[in-house]
Each structure stands twice: as structure tokens, then as C-alpha cells.
Amino acid sequence: RDSVQPAILRVGDTAHVAVAVVGPDGRPVPGIEVRLHAPIRQLETLGDTALVALREGEAELHARPMRDGRPIAAETTGRLALRVQPAPLTRLEIAAPERLYAGMRAIARVRATTAAGPRETGPAVAWRSSDPTVLRVSGAGGLEAVAPGTARLEASAEGRRASLDVRVVPNPVVRLELRPAFAELAAGEVVHLSAGAFDADGRTVEDAPVEWAIEVVEPTLGGAARVDEGGAFVADAPGTYRVVARTGGRAAVTEIHADPRPPRRPVELLAHRPLPSGAGAATDLWVLSLIHI
């Protein structure tokens, strides 16, 4: 039988292991060695008496009895489920833009550090803005620049706090262009959209962040589509889609029509011959021909 204290560990903790091999009568069996085995990525064994928790998650510790260097029997292996929890936070930092245009949105995140290094899973964070009339923040860290000014963004988690001053400045963007204005492609193909922001003098505003959204105009087979932060659009199903780019109070629209994927064309096997050994990576030669329908 085996026991591990504590059964729940934190990353970086060392636990001492006590293993007893007993017979049917409940007495210790002499001449038996025990070897510990654990998932390499989550636990590290220190000889046959201790282990170190390396990463978060569920893990299973195996205690295997040995005689003369060989396992006695598979059914005698002891198993114990362990849960490795995050190490306590030592530092919290906010990762967010320090300058925003009025009317724009952004996402704030935290970098959580422990004595064992960066935290794998993010902690539950409470967000606060010192002046919601300048900067609003949601419970998930969503930022909205309301009006010019400076506000302090604050984050707290597990007894640690961090802050960042965010400056909201007037929005210079008066026009947003989206290219191409129209596109037609097959479902599954990708089209790269480009959004340009301009000020009153026609100069490009390089640091204007763009938000993307998709509206289904004429759905077919579900009408599913995606667009990433860089403007790469792909339709998973045929249909007509309206892609909207926004920055502050400005918006631009393009329409994309996705046709059904081309049907698969059957092929005909014309010949097949094995190649002699040493001819290269390929071992067979196949000759195929498309069948015209």
C-alpha cells in the first residue's frame, strides 16, 4: 500500500513518499524494493522516497515492487492519483496598451509569476478603472476608451495587485477603407482583407486598432465563416457574407460570396509497378488519370 502527504501538491512542492509492501497476512514482505514512476512532465521522482511537482494538472504516481531488479507482478503495482495546483503568486503585471484613441477598444491581460516561474493557468482577476468616464473595463479585461484623459487600470488576484496608467487621446481617424470591396471565392479558400485608417489630411493612422465582425447575408448550409485579427477571412460553408471593420466610431464594409467547393473528381489507375530497392524514398510507382465527367 502507499501514501503520499499531501495528496494535493502545488507546483514546486516536494512530497515525501512512504510505501509499504505487505502480504496477504498484512505483514511487511522482506527483500522487496520499491521504485516510483511518475509522468515526466508533471512530477519528478527523487530516488524512491520523494517527488517534486513540476506542472499543474492531474497525475498518477506508480509504486512498483521489485525483486532482484525485476518487477514482481503487474497487479501488485500501487497507484495514487495526485492533483498539482498552481504555485502561489509572487508578482502580477498588466499587459495592455498605455495609449488609446477615444472610442476604441482593447483587451487587458495579466502576466502572473510564481516562485517556480510563469503561471501556466491564469488566476481569476478583478479589474477596476480609477475613472470610468475616461476608461471603462469589463470583468474580463475588456477596455473601452471613453474620452480623452488618463485613468489608472488596476488588477488584483490572490492577494497581489498591479496597476497601469492608460492615456486616452482624441481619435484622429475620420475615414476607414476596406479592400477588396467585393470578393468571390470557393468555400474553404482564404481572402486577405486590408483595412486602412486615415486622418483629416488623408494621412494613414498606423496605430489604429481594427475590430472585425461578420454578418451572414445569404446563408447556405449553416453559413459559417471566420476572420482573424490580421483580416484573413475563410468561409467554412457557401453563402454571402458581410465583413465589417471598425476602429473607434468609423466602420467599413466588404461583401464576400463563397461558392460551394468544387466536386471531387474520380481517378483511374493506369499502372502500378514496385521500384527496385535503393531507388529512393518511394517504393512503388503509381500512374493515375483524372476521369472527365
Compact summary:
The protein is mainly beta and 293 residues long. The chain has strands at 2-5, 8-10, 14-19, 33-37, 43-46, 50-53, 57-67, 70-71, 78-85, 89-95, 99-101, 105-107, 109-114, 117-118, 126-129, 135-137, 142-145, 149-157, 160-169, 175-179, 182-186, 190-192, 194-198, 211-219, 225-227, 232-235, 239-247, 250-259, 267-274, 284-290. The strands form nine sheets. Strands 2, 4, 7, 8 and 9 form a five-stranded mixed beta sheet that branches. The protein has a four-stranded antiparallel beta sheet with strand order 1-3-6-5, with no helix packed on it.
Note the topology.
Blueprint: E1 2-5, E2 8-10, E3 14-19, E4 33-37, E5 43-46, E6 50-53, E7 57-67, E8 70-71, E9 78-85, E10 89-95, E11 99-101, E12 105-107, E13 109-114, E14 117-118, E15 126-129, E16 135-137, E17 142-145, E18 149-157, E19 160-169, E20 175-179, E21 182-186, E22 190-192, E23 194-198, E24 211-219, E25 225-227, E26 232-235, E27 239-247, E28 250-259, E29 267-274, E30 284-290
Parallel strand pairs: 2-9, 11-19, 21-28
Antiparallel strand pairs: 1-3, 3-6, 4-7, 5-6, 7-8, 7-9, 10-13, 12-17, 13-14, 15-18, 16-17, 18-19, 20-23, 22-26, 24-27, 25-26, 27-28, 29-30
Report on the structure:
- The chain is mainly beta and 293 residues long.
- Helix content is 0%, strand content 57%.
- The protein contains no helices and 30 strands.
- The chain has strands at residues 2-5, 8-10, 14-19, 33-37, 43-46, 50-53, 57-67, 70-71, 78-85, 89-95, 99-101, 105-107, 109-114, 117-118, 126-129, 135-137, 142-145, 149-157, 160-169, 175-179, 182-186, 190-192, 194-198, 211-219, 225-227, 232-235, 239-247, 250-259, 267-274, 284-290.
- Strands 2, 4, 7, 8 and 9 form a five-stranded mixed sheet that branches. Strands 1-3-6-5 form a four-stranded antiparallel sheet, with no helix packed on it.
- The protein is flat.
- It starts with a strand and ends with a strand.
- The relative contact order is 0.10.
